[in-house]
Design a protein that fits this description.
- It is built from 7 helices and 9 strands; from the N terminus they run αββββααββαβαβαβα.
- The chain is an alpha/beta fold and 271 residues long.
- The chain has one domain: Nucleoside phosphorylase domain (Rossmann fold).
- β6, α4 and β7 form a beta-alpha-beta unit.
- α1 packs across α3 and α4 crosses α7.
- The chain starts with a helix and ends with a helix.
């Protein structure tokens, strides 16, 4: 694994001669941030040695090197999911590569189902913590000692300083934000009414199928993380005739995306 990570990082360094300060992972329908980046280099995932290929609609599958608000950034326009059939070490492989390329912070976004009954469709929720309901931990197996400790500390999975800055940015621009807990599970099925209720009981405010593995691996390598969920639908177990479609998720995410872009831009500027 270490050899593959280094091979991929060396390939990208050789092609770009570019050292990013911030890594950005963009979720379903949230790839519009790329329009704000002054792109220097762009690679389809299929061009990159050892990289998986995104198979989900709404995930474009490009790695973008460029400048955002004066800072060198590298953005994943589309991520990888456990439900696509990839093992966890492949789902999180790009995060390992971003670390070797030089990132000092990782920003993530995702589309999520709202569990908290005070939330509304289109809300932005800053993630303060997560619950891992995936059947596999991305750190399972032999530890990569040169990247991190065997038992990484997760009491501050999401960086409190970045959260405080993001909340101040949102307030300055009159952007409504929520704060809460994200529960990540395998998918690809959406939850049953009983599962929605279980997640509420556990203390989750939104539910999704990504982000948690990437954050675990980032924290293993001591990378500060910041993440926002766009609430694209509401989990209403008592209403069984309101199914959620992937198109609906993408459409809501695209409407909310300009607000997320503004927060990310100003947050990058201050890193």
């Amino acid at each position: 694994m270490i050899a593959k990570i280094k091979e991929t990082a060396d390939f990208l360094k050789g092609k770009t001669n570019f050292t990013p300060e911030v890594g950005i992972i963009l979720g379903s329908g949230l790839g519009g941030l790329v329009k704000a980046i002054d792109i220097k280099h762009s690679f389809e995932y299929g061009e990159i040695p050892n990289f998986p290929v995104s198979t989900v609609e709404g995930h474009h599958g490009r790695l973008i090197f460029g400048v955002l608000e004066g800072k060198n950034v590298i953005a994943m326009q589309g991520r990888f999911h456990y439900y696509e059939g990839y093992p966890m070490h492949e789902v999180t492989f790009p995060v390992r590569v971003l670390k070797l390329l030089g990132i000092k912070a990782l920003f993530l976004s995702n589309a999520a189902g709202g569990l908290n009954k005070s939330f509304e469709v289109g809300d932005l929720m800053i993630i303060r913590d997560h619950i891992n309901m995936f059947p596999e931990n991305p750190l399972r197996g032999k530890n990569l000692d040169e990247l991190g400790t065997r038992f990484p500390e997760m009491s501050e999975a999401y960086d409190k300083k970045l959260i405080a800055k993001a909340r101040a940015i949102a307030k300055k621009h009159n952007i409504k934000t929520q704060m809460g807990v994200y529960v990540g599970s395998a998918g690809p099925t959406l939850e049953t009414p009983s599962e929605y209720n279980m997640f509420r009981i556990l203390g989750a405010d939104v539910t999704g199928m990504s982000t948690v593995p990437e954050v675990i691996v980032a924290r293993h390598m001591n990378i500060p993380c910041f993440a926002i969920s766009v609430v694209t639908n509401l989990a209403e177990p008592e209403i069984t005739d309101k199914p959620t479609s992937h198109d609906e998720v993408q459409n809501v995410a695209e409407v909310a995306e300009p607000k997320l872009t503004l927060i990310f831009k100003e947050l990058v500027k201050g890193v």
